[in-house]
Amino acid sequence: MTTLQVLGIDGSIQTRQLRANLVEALASLGMKAFVENVSGMEQLMKYRINGIPALVVDGTVVLQKIVPPTEDLKILLNAFAEGAFKQFAMKKILVPTDFSKAAKDAFRFALDLAELQEGKVKTVHVYHPEFDPESNWLNNSFMDGMGYAKERLDNFVKDELNAAAGTGDVATAVAVEKEVITGFAVDEILECSRRKDVELMVMGSTGERGFLEKLFGSVSTNVTQRAECPVMLVPEGVKFRGFKHIMYASNYEAAEQPTLHKLLDVANSFHSDIHFVHVSEEGDSKNYDEIESRLFNVLFKGNEPTFAFNMANIEGHSVVDGLNDYAIKHNIDLVVMVSPHRNFWEQLFHKSVTKAMVLNTKLPILVLHG
User: Fold this and answer.
1) What's the pTM value of the predicted model, to 2 decimals?
2) DSSP alpha helices (H): ranges in 41-139?
3) Same topology for domains 92-235 and 245-369, yes or no?
4) With CB atoms 3.0 to 4.6 Å apart as the test, which of 127, 233, 253, 351 could cross-link to 149 if both were Cys?
């Protein structure tokens, strides 16, 4: 981010306030940028705006006819600094597999998604060998195990592609790559999430099975909370049917994240409507009207929205039940949530609505990271 222009009239109270809030936001974030005042009528007409004051960031008009508070300006500035306004694509899809029924369903889901977007799929299996520490690492047992893992992955992909082609669910032209990695599943899958050629990870989710998964989380829930790329969790038995109705479940913090712009990219790509569902938890001191106002200011920038949307507020003892009930009632196809990155102990003891939804939902969940 190098250049910012404040468009307005010299001496205007609103123009001066926008510049003051902008300067304060830059200082608070520690960002250095040149702020230019644009007030001449001939210059203002070049930007084809509908009203003033307005804000231009790197040549793009991002606000007009409103003066956002400093906190909202910080969100926008952060979004540009972090590249959040680059279109969020889901064409390069990574699918970890353990050959389970849930993994097969996730792979088929990814194939359908890739076919619709003319994308490609890479499936990864993490092989964790058992070996004798006193013997050579590259012993015959290890090599045999690697060979078997690669053979299983080859057969897995071949069988699923044949099954998909046989049902007409997906074009056989979808490009599929395969890779077997040695190591611990969570660690290796997280490493994959950092690759530049991965735009989305699709994983199968089996739900809550017992005390250990409830406490520590399965591989899918661990990866979801710590991955560097967006993760889509597909419950066992769920098939891709498009994303006509999207539910964005947020608390106050999630309503402020630049990840909202990724949500808009998804909605625009699939011509979806969005249900913004705010979760009111116990002790929530933030006012729902304030959150609603922030959503409008950040997402729509003073203009009319380009998609159909609804806003709702859920209160009650069980947040997860409330979200699930809302999703069923409104025929939701995809749930979008934000999961903040936390260390292990915070993950273990923090009450996480996202994790609870992952363990209980019957719908695909797209998890973006704050």
Assistant:
1) 0.68
2) 41-46, 70-81, 101-117
3) yes
4) 127
